[in-house]
Automatic annotation (TrEMBL), chain A:
It comes from the Bacteria. InterPro entries: ABC_transp_permease (IPR001851), BCAA_transport_permease (IPR052157). It comes from Pseudodesulfovibrio methanolicus. The chain crosses the membrane at residues 12-35, 42-59, 65-86, 98-119, 139-166, 195-218, 233-261, 273-292. Pfam families: BPD_transp_2. The keyword Zinc-finger does not apply. Belongs to the binding-protein-dependent transport system permease family. LivHM subfamily. Its main location: membrane. It is found in: Cell membrane. This is Branched-chain amino acid ABC transporter permease. It is a multi-pass membrane protein. Keywords: Amino-acid transport, Cell inner membrane, Cell membrane, Membrane, Transmembrane, Transmembrane helix, Transport.
UniProtKB/TrEMBL annotation, chain B:
It comes from Pseudodesulfovibrio methanolicus. Residues 32-369 form the Leucine-binding protein domain. This is Branched-chain amino acid ABC transporter substrate-binding protein. PROSITE patterns: PROKAR_LIPOPROTEIN. The keyword Signal applies. Residues 1-19 form the signal peptide. It comes from the Bacteria. Keywords: Amino-acid transport, Signal, Transport.
């Protein structure tokens, strides 16, 4: 039982990270039907920006928690800007072209950004200052680290904030309108280009937050770190019903749990296989994803 | 049309001019070219760059000392294998086209083996500083040499340490399924069973994983005396160490030569304290090593990595052999190479007929943020 509960906690933590990244996939797909394969790289860029800022601030003697908060906000902002630049450069000119062209452009952008990170930051793993977040407590035989709590709490907080943004604000209404029909929403006075750019920015900001969490949780970042979580988060987004915000959360948690339980009860080498078997199963039996039916209301 | 014609003529003339230059240069100079082959990108880039830089320093040392008689200079050409067998073979072909006479590399045994087959067809030397799989030298290739130790020496050395020094009764093994890491882990499992140590479980993770919480939860539940970490990469090794400590695993942690790297301690920091690793003994107080260290630091600004000194010694050995033979004729260089017996930066280098150079595995312990030699597997003595 302890073993099961411990794995459950591990799964929720990993799922939270996937969910944060998956949100960006889902939002961008919801609004312009593009699978943004460069999204994993925003996650990596956020992780790097985080380590640079946290190292600098903590060397200046800033309080660790303030340090973390400031770095989080700044890297989210940085990745938001980066995503808007990428959108301008790689996707906007192709908006009238076929979907395949935009998809290829996204793949190219992913390789470009990954190599950019390698060339500017070096090939070595970059260690995070772990003093901030080490430690935890035990309940019986189950150990929970502060970092796990932080990841779950931050995921929940950002998800609530995102829901308020999308469903309670004018910008959110404009996003939903653009997702439904770009032309019609433009006719009623919505600047759809600006809304699309904003959607990219929000998604990348969430990925950046996930990048910092992962860096702190595991202790280091690497320029290749965006690829695998990017693919997993994509799977999570499809699983939950791509275009659906709640679906991204559910999908992320499911993929995280499946991975951890497959590794825990079978063997670590099978965990990726199981994550993708689930994905294929969903595509086969319910192609819209778990939450993907009442599309128009909840779609961004 | 006319402009096009002029352009074409101009290009042609330029081409002839350049070709002329090239021809003359080749007549005047005889360059000795050696290649390196290691993962310069991807997750193993840290070790790969260490290898490239180690070999470069050896060439620099020779060039500064006046080169080799008969050659105007020594040049080094570095190729990236990304630890991928296909890319390694492509890199080997590229180096063949560049007319290198020897290659230092590769890193992953799974790349070294196919690349060496390609190089063997052209009678080009391959001296590996890092591939420890027994098969590397067991295929009877005439020009395949190895400067590091072998897995089938490393595994028994590690197990002997567990049993004799730490009194370990149960172990849990994790590897990441590469030719190297899995082969070594299986060797450890076999040696452990033979020594009466119980292998509670031998689990696998995927290369490049960052999350080890699931497998470590298993380790915690199994309560082994020792967790043997056989991963291909020091950075992932560090992640496993950090996560194991955070999870409250109190087993002894032990890694192998791919995990042994200054980066491990840089990333895992305090969590690495008390961890053990097997690696070839390098006497850091030896004058030869100090000389190498100074050059390495001056050139790269970094501490040498795990395989830098082996790469340095591999290149040095080949260049010495060419110097002794006075030619690059493979058969003659091979004879000279087998006659060599010199103190390298890493160890005493003496190649055997099959290309191996013996093993000198030592157990290191992480103490105060440094790898400290702890136990000698050959003598069974604490250091």
């Amino acid at each position: 039982m302890d073993f099961f509960l411990q794995q459950l906690i591990n799964g929720i933590t990993l799922g939270g990270v996937y969910a944060l990244i998956a949100l960006g996939y889902t939002m961008v797909y919801g609004i312009i039907q593009l699978i943004n394969f460069a999204h994993g790289e925003f996650f990596a860029a956020g992780g790097y920006m985080g380590v640079i800022l946290i190292s600098y601030l903590s060397s200046q003697g800033v309080n660790p928690y303030a340090c973390l908060a400031i770095s989080l906000v700044l890297s989210m902002g940085y990745c938001a800007l980066l995503a808007m630049a990428v959108e301008q450069l790689a996707y906007k000119p192709l908006r009238q072209a076929s979907r395949l062209a935009a998809l290829l452009s996204a793949l190219g952008m992913s390789i470009f950004l990954q190599n950019g990170l390698m060339l500017t930051q070096g090939v070595y793993d970059r260690p995070y200052p772990t003093e901030i977040t080490s430690g935890g407590f035990e309940i019986g035989a189950i150990s929970i680290s502060y970092m796990q709590i932080l990841i779950v709490a931050l995921t929940a907080f950002l998800l609530v904030a995102l829901n308020i943004l999308v469903f309670k604000t004018r910008i959110g209404r404009a996003m939903r309108a653009t997702a439904q029909d770009k032309v019609m929403s433009a006719l009623v006075g919505i600047n759809s280009n600006r809304i699309i750019a904003l959607t990219f920015a929000v998604g990348a900001g969430l990925a950046a937050a996930a990048g910092i969490m992962v860096g702190l949780y595991y202790g280091s970042v690497n320029y290749t770190m965006g690829f695998v979580p990017g693919i997993k988060a994509f799977a999570a987004a499809v699983l939950g019903g791509i275009g659906n915000i709640t679906g991204a959360l559910v999908g992320g948690l499911i993929i995280g749990m499946v991975e951890i339980f497959a590794a825990g009860y079978i063997s670590g080498e099978y965990k990726d296989v199981f994550a993708f078997i689930i994905l294929i199963g969903v595509l086969y039996f319910k192609p819209t994803g778990i939450m993907g039916e009442n599309v128009d209301d909840t779609r961004v | 049309m006319k402009r096009l014609l002029v352009l074409a003529v101009a290009l042609l003339a330029l081409g002839l001019l350049l070709a002329g230059c090239g021809g003359e240069e080749q007549k005047a100079e005889k360059v000795l070219k050696i290649g390196t082959m290691s993962p310069l990108t991807g997750p193993y880039a840290a070790d790969g760059n260490d290898i490239r830089q180690g070999a470069e320093i050896a060439v620099e040392v020779f060039n500064e000392a006046g080169g080799i008689p008969g050659f105007s200079k020594i040049e080094i050409i570095s190729e990236d294998t990304a630890c991928d067998p296909k890319q390694a073979v492509a890199a080997a072909n590229k180096l063949i086209n560049e007319k290198v006479t020897a290659v230092v590399g590769a890193y992953c045994s799974s790349s070294t083996i196919p690349a060496s087959e390609t190089l063997a067809e052209e009678n080009i030397f391959m001296l590996t500083p890092a591939s420890t799989n027994p098969k590397v030298t067991e295929r009877g290739l005439k020009y395949m040499f190895r400067t590091c130790g072998r897995d089938d020496h490393q595994a028994p050395a590690a197990v002997k340490f567990m049993k004799d020094v730490e009194g370990v009764k149960t172990i849990f093994i994790v590897d990441d399924k590469t030719t190297y890491s899995q082969g070594l882990a299986e060797g450890v499992a076999k040696a452990a069973e033979a020594a009466g140590i119980k292998v509670l479980e031998h689990d696998h993770v995927n290369q490049g994983d960052k999350d080890y919480s699931a497998v470590l939860t298993k380790v915690k539940a199994a309560h082994p005396d020792l967790l043997y970490i056989s991963l291909q990469n020091s950075a992932t090794g560090a992640l496993m160490v950090i996560q194991a400590k955070r999870m409250g695993i109190d087993a002894i942690l032990m890694g192998q030569d791919a995990v042994y790297h200054p980066k491990l301690i840089e990333i895992a920091k305090g969590d690495a304290e008390g961890m053990f690793c097997t690696f070839g003994a390098i006497d850091k107080n030896a004058p030869k090593y100090k000389e190498f260290l100074a050059k390495y630091k001056a050139k790269t600004g970094n501490e040498p990595g795990a395989y830098s000194a082996y790469a340095f010694d591999s290149a040095t050995a080949y260049l010495m052999a060419v110097k002794d033979a006075g030619t690059t004729d493979p058969a003659k260089v091979r004879d000279a190479l087998l006659k060599l017996d010199f103190t390298g930066a890493s160890k005493q280098i003496k190649y055997e007929e099959n290309g191996d150079s013996g093993s000198n595995y030592t157990v290191y312990k992480v103490q105060d943020g440094k790898f400290v030699p702890y136990w000698n597997s050959l003598t069974g003595q604490k250091l």
